[in-house]
Amino acid sequence: MPKNLSAWIDLTLHLFVMLLLIIVLWSYNPFLAATSFVLWLCLAGFARERCRDRSVRFERYCKGVIANVNELMNYAMDRLPQAVFVVDAEGRIQWASSQAEAFLGQMPDYETDIKDYWPNIILEPIWGTDGEYVFAHEDHYYQVKYRPVKFAVHQPEYMVLFVEDVSHVEELRSEYHASRTVLCYIQIDNYDEVMQGQTEAERAGLLLAVNQALGTWLKNLGGFLKRVNEDLYVAVLERKELDRAMAEKFDVLDKVRQIQSTNRLPVTLSMGVAVAEGQTMAELGRQAQAGLDLALGRGGDQVAVSIGGKTQFFGGRAKAVEKHTRVKARVVAHAIEEIMEASDAVYIMGHHNEDYDSFGAAVGVAEMAKALGKPVHIVLSDMNEGISKIEEYMRSKEEYDGLLVHAADVSTLDALSPVLFVVDTHIPHLVADPTLLERVNQVVVIDHHRRSEQFIQNPLLVYIEPASSSTSELVTELLMYFSDDMRVSRLAATALYSGIVVDTKNFAVQTGVRTFDAAAYLRRSGADPVVVRHLFRSDYDTTVALARAEAHAQFFAGGLIATAIPSNIPNIQVIAAQTADSLLRIEKARMSIVVFALKEGTVGISARSTGELNVQVIMEHFGGGGHQNVAGAQVKGRAVESVFNEAIEEAKAYIEEYDQDESDSAAGR
What we know:
Elements: H1 5-26, H2 30-78, E1 83-87, E2 93-96, H3 100-104, E3 131-137, E4 140-149, E5 158-165, H4 167-178, E6 181-188, H5 191-195, H6 200-220, E7 224-227, E8 232-238, H7 239-247, H8 252-257, E9 269-275, H9 281-297, E10 302-307, E11 310-315, H10 327-342, E12 345-349, H11 356-371, E13 376-380, H12 388-395, E14 404-406, E15 418-423, H13 434-439, E16 442-447, E17 461-464, H14 471-482, H15 490-503, H16 513-524, H17 529-535, H18 540-551, E18 554-556, E19 560-565, H19 572-583, E20 591-599, E21 602-609, H20 615-621, E22 625-626, E23 630-636, H21 640-666
Parallel strand pairs: 9-10, 12-13, 12-15, 13-14, 15-16, 16-17, 19-20
Antiparallel strand pairs: 1-2, 1-5, 3-4, 4-5, 6-8, 6-9, 7-8, 10-11, 18-19, 20-21, 21-23, 22-23
């Protein structure tokens, strides 16, 4: 009998009190007391039976309730809209609710692997944790909520999976995603060049051909196109059509490139594309404009697509077109003069581990500051073995005393209004001293590399010309227009000349009319080719290392030649660059790649091309960048062999795709 405090125990207390009263009554009237005692016994027996009967009824009631609750729970479990599975660590089904049949088409067998029914279901990464995820199977989407279950200490652990069909929700999500607005700015990036020397009829015919190509492309995508200027268009389309255009690699670029003016220059387009993802229309427009600026800064003939805060690039195969006039150089030179005049100190730095182009451009900017009588310093990185000869030579000259400093020497800035010139790079983390960017508000960027997604924030002035052979060439042109009485010293002219020689591979690559004009100006200013040749002489160990790297090179189909230098040797970056240049001189070679051990835990890549292929696209895959003909990257935390194999695969895929597209264009498709 259960212990029921409100029934039998309470009655026992009452019966005990009544018994005491009967005992007291015995002393006064024994007969009445005896009668009362008989009645008390009857009452006690009745109470005892009543309590026992109530206990039996209560127990029967509890058992009935428990049985009903279990039945209700089982009923509710079977009628849940979710299918419930209990699986072990190997994914074998230990139990499944009856709703599993509706999801699987049949009741699963005991000890059957759940992946036999749903191959895409995830178990191993989420084992022992709580959460949820969605997976797809045969045009259906399923949401899985998972919970770990452990019955006893020595028993194996199980997972309970609550699976629900959420195909309708995912379809709505996909439809919403596919219908997002896409804003596209389209510009004919070489408009002035292709229109030069054209008659009005020829101009109209050329623009008509471009309009028809763009109109047909947008019509097939279901988009809207509006021409807002002579060379600028605005297009609006949906995200699903953008995905189709991305899958086709924006083939409209190739179609428009086949349109040529009478001067035989192909028409090239640049696009900035932004996808609406919660931002305002004003912000969407700014993103599209920024994408167009980025595509133009990278040399044009490409598309910059901004999705989810990341930028993807398409195209970029055509060479950047050299401008025939120096109007922009003259305007920038006058702007730099005004900026220097308004500042009380000038600081200049290039990229980390400076080369001759970076150093020569810095020396050229320093000549401008000296002409204005401004205090000037060139900030060098802690790794600059490649320019050690010219650095030592310049430090020995009294007129350049205090010009060259290291990052530690400018830990504090005395100037109230300094200006910082960044040359031969525009990527913040690649500069000689990244902290200097944070301490100087006025920054001027001069570079010849194709613009990367990463860029120095809020520069005062940007002068980027990807068509230029080198930054030294750009700075030389600025010196021509900087001042009428500008006189460049012999050493500065030699430094600038060496920068042009390095980046053009002795005037063999990426050279134009303006390149030779700049070289002629420097020769008139006293640049000494003999000194330059002396600067480029290598020692015996470097020559041997270069020969070994070339001897282990591998030639692949499509004109790719590559080699690896697995051991870290002195002056390795210079050796890798020279090796890449040397390999490119081999017959039928179109692209060269050298992978080398830069330092502990870091692998470097140096890539070159003859100009037909764009090595910058490949190096951007590894987080690097550069120019169409010259590019590089640094990869941390990986082995040389692993990076080498991946670089080969990326380059082979790029060459195959490029050749395929060229074949299609030649066939008129």
